[in-house]
Amino acid sequence: MGVFLQTLFVGLRLGSVYALIALGYTMVYGIIRLINFAHGDFIMVGGYTLIFTVPLMTAAGLPAWLAVVIAIAVCALVGVGVELVAYRPVRRKGTGMTALITAVAMSLFLENLAQAIPAIGPNPIIASQLFAPGGFRVAGVTLDFVTIYTIAVSAAVMLLLYVFTQKTRMGRAMRCVSEDKSAAVLMGISVNRTVLTTFAVGSGLSAVAALMYVAQYPKVYTTMGSLLGLKAFVAAVAGGIGLIPGAMLGGLVIGLVESFTTSYISSSLTDAVVFLILIAVLLIKPAGILGKNVGEKV
Amino acid sequence: MLKIEDLHVSYGAVRAIKGISLEVDDGELVSLIGANGAGKTTTLHTISGLVPASSGSITLDGKDLRKTPPEKIIGLGLAHVPEGRHVFARMSVEENLAMGAYIVRDKAKIKRQLDMVYAHFPRLAERSRQLAGTLSGGEQQMLAMGRALMTEPKMLLLDEPSMGLSPILVKEIFSIIRELHDAGITILLVEQNAKMALAISDRAYVLETGLISMSGPAQELLHDDKVRRAYLGA
Ligand SMILES: Nc1ncnc2c1ncn2[C@@H]1O[C@H](COP(=O)(O)OP(=O)(O)OP(=O)(O)O)[C@@H](O)[C@H]1O
Ligand SMILES: [Mg+2]
């Protein structure tokens, strides 16, 4: 029972982080049908920003986690920058394949650029500054605060995102552009501006993911986004790429699968099982768990 | 109101429009008829800026539409109901109508237009919460037209509004077009159903592989032998 609960908590925590990242993949895919391979690296950008800004926050007497505001801004700017400098010009001239290659290139570019910054090793001090250590005892296991915050923050962010896409003018414009670009233009929606907003929001979410991730695993390095991003991408595809609820669900599923595999099977098999699950899901439902197999995806 | 002069449009090497000129005056209902592939949709898309022109001019009340960003054109009072409806399938009827009023900031005006659209299309009112993708073809056409009316446009571009509809619905759509015309809205109507289009139009143009082959008062074209043979199946 103790192991089960502990595993469940870890799974939900991991899943919440994957879900936040998966949202970024899925929102961008939904709107321009591009798999933004650089998205995972935005987490790294967020991680570095946190490592550098947390000390500034504490020096100013502010709560350390407030650094996430700066990280969100930096990630949003990087996302918007990548779209403006790389994706938009390529989209105008090239095909889907050129765009995909550009995305891979942007990922490598960001990773290499980050190497110019001295590597920052395990930094437990900053991590413990982010959120109060400790937790509750639940049925004999510790449910630490970081886990609670991670799950709560992701849930809150997803709720906000839902309200944003359903109720706000910009959110509705995003849904229109993702469904039918030319019809959206006829409504008076600026496609370029909507795509930029999507990049800003999706990339900003990766900063929140970075905060939650770094609070748990206080190590920031240039390729930290690769595997994390890949798994979140798997989550987005498994849930149904282009669908916001699909990203949330897929993230949680992948997190739980990973955590239960580690606890009950073997930690060395975790990643293999995650990808097996993806293949199994796609064999049964090619459009993902929530995707419709016929007709168009968002 | 709308004036097109010597318009040329190409898709890569394919020349779809090879120098057409046409005019629609205030309050007029003008139809553009022609065979499949003649370039009717291309003409409307070029007016709305969805497809770039290679040369020529398009003006609306003297304003150069070729220099206007496509998403700003609706703000000039020109609304476009595209071929194939293009409703937002995953949004409800009411959300689709709300998107039609995307550029309108005045809540009271949105409400007024919504009531007006529901009065024209009672069927949409009954289905306000239904997802647009689950509407029948006729209902989707009504929604597409209703959505275009949400900004209270001066001019409408209608691309094959009767396509794929049953004879009864075709009649209904045409009577609505006539009502809109009577209400003073300027209309450029593209139709395969040339007979019904000519019957309600003031004037018409015949488009043949990217060129205008004939034009004149609709009644004259309706009785023209060439038009009757080619487009009216007589
Ligand atoms: N996106 C495109 N790329 C290449 N060629 C195109 C494109 N769209 C249209 N065309 C070509 O341009 C010509 C005119 O097409 P258009 O759709 O304007 O015809 P239409 O008169 O509206 O026909 P229909 O009555 O079938 O709707 C056709 O030869 C068509 O194949
Ligand atoms: Mg057409």
User: How many domains is the backbone of chain A divided into?
Assistant: 1
Oligomer: heterodimer
Indicate the structural class of chain A: mainly alpha
- The low-pLDDT segments of chain A are 294-298
Largest interface: A-B, 19 and 28 residues
- The geometry of chain A reads as globular
Each distinct ligand: adenosine-5'-triphosphate, magnesium ion
Helix content of chain B: 25-40%
> With helices defined by DSSP (H or I, 4 residues minimum), what is the helix count of chain A?
12
Question: Whole-Å distance between the termini of chain B?
Answer: 34 Å
Query: Given the C-alpha coordinates, what overall shape of chain B results?
Result: globular
The residue-averaged pLDDT of chain A reads 89
Largest sheet of chain A: 2 strands, antiparallel
Strand order of the largest sheet of chain A: 1-2
The end-to-end distance of chain A, rounded to whole angstroms, is: 41 Å
> N-to-C SSE series of chain B?
EEEHEEEHHHHEHEHEEHH
Secondary structure: elements and pairs:
The complex is a heterodimer of chains A (298) and B (234).
Chain A: H1 2-32, H2 39-59, H3 67-93, H4 96-114, H5 124-130, E1 135-138, E2 141-144, H6 145-167, H7 169-179, H8 181-186, H9 191-216, H10 224-239, H11 244-264, H12 270-284
Antiparallel strand pairs in A: 1-2
Chain B: E1 2-11, E2 14-24, E3 29-34, H1 40-47, E4 55-60, E5 63-64, E6 78-81, H2 93-100, H3 107-120, H4 122-126, H5 137-149, E7 155-159, H6 167-182, E8 186-191, H7 194-200, E9 203-208, E10 211-217, H8 218-222, H9 225-231
Parallel strand pairs in B: 3-8, 3-9, 6-7, 7-8
Antiparallel strand pairs in B: 1-2, 1-4, 4-5, 9-10
Helix pairs in contact in B: 2-5
Magnesium ion binds at residues 40-41, 83 of chain B.
Brief characterization of the structure:
The complex is a heterodimer of chains A (298) and B (234). Chain A is mainly alpha-helical.
Question: Would you kindly provide a written description of the structure presented here, covering whatever features stand out?
Answer:
The complex is a heterodimer of chains A (298) and B (234). Chain A is an all-alpha fold and 298 residues long. Helices cover 75% and strands 3% of the residues of chain A. Chain A is built from twelve helices and two strands. The longest helix of chain A has 31 residues, at 2-32. Chain B is of the alpha/beta class and 234 residues long. Chain B contains nine helices and ten strands. The model of chain B has no long low-confidence stretch (mean pLDDT 95). The interface between A and B is medium-sized, with 19 and 28 residues. Residues 11, 14, 16, 34, 36-42, 83, 192 of chain B line the site of adenosine-5'-triphosphate.
